Amino acid sequence: IRAIMRGVGSGLHSVLGHTTLKNYVMTLNYKTEKFKLEKTIEKSDIDWFTFDYLEGTHLITIPITIDGEGPYPFVLDTGAGGTVITFDFAAKLGLEDTGGVKVMAKGIGGDSPAFMAYVNEFAAPRLKLNNFRLIAMDLGKVSLRPGVIKYGVLGYNFLQNFETIIDYPNKLIALIPQE
Fold first, then answer.
1. Separation between Cα atoms, residue 119 and residue 139, nearest integer Å
2. What is the CATH number of the domain that holds 132?
3. How far is CA 42 from CA 46, 52, 176, in A?
């Protein structure tokens, strides 16, 4: 982290990725602006659940149910501004572009037109959010790996509700609700 911080203000632009994170326990809390990497963490009072990697990648997936359907493997992306789903998955859920707010999504691989939709219940293990906003888009146009993500990506509007602790070496994650 010190090496990264030395680069702040010097034009350094980088991503703290799996090559580094795989050896640590990461804590992220958007509300308190806390980011911490540790070699180990006391696990006794934390409500952990296991995570999987998306097949053939280092992308963490969390099982999500939407309005009681699922679970669907959503990719956890601490750098995504919002929670997004693919157009195909939106159609499967019966979500349509009603011609409301028009959005242009921008990603590392390019841009995609998008639309916003709401679901009544959006749930991860041991927690749920009501009246949750999703953005439907062509993830293949904004990703460097088109077609890899079939359902969606969990972003800031989901993660801001929790302190997220990821124990990479043990494939454990905890989402601790924030008040």
1. 19
2. 2.40.70.10
3. 8, 22, 15
5 occurs within a structural domain: no
Note down pLDDT in tens along the chain; length 179 residues.
Answer: 445 445 445 555 556 777 778 889 999 998 888 889 999 888 778 899 999 998 888 889 999 999 999 999 999 988 888 899 999 999 999 998 776 767 777 666 667 788 888 999 999 988 899 999 998 988 776 666 667 889 999 999 999 999 999 999 999 999 998 87
CB 69 within 8 Å of CB 95: no
Contact 175, 124 (CB under 8 A): yes
User: Considering the entire predicted model, what is its pTM?
Assistant: 0.83
Give the alpha-carbon dihedral of 161, 4, 55, 147, to 10 degrees.
80
Instruction: Provide the number of structural domains found in the chain.
Output: 1
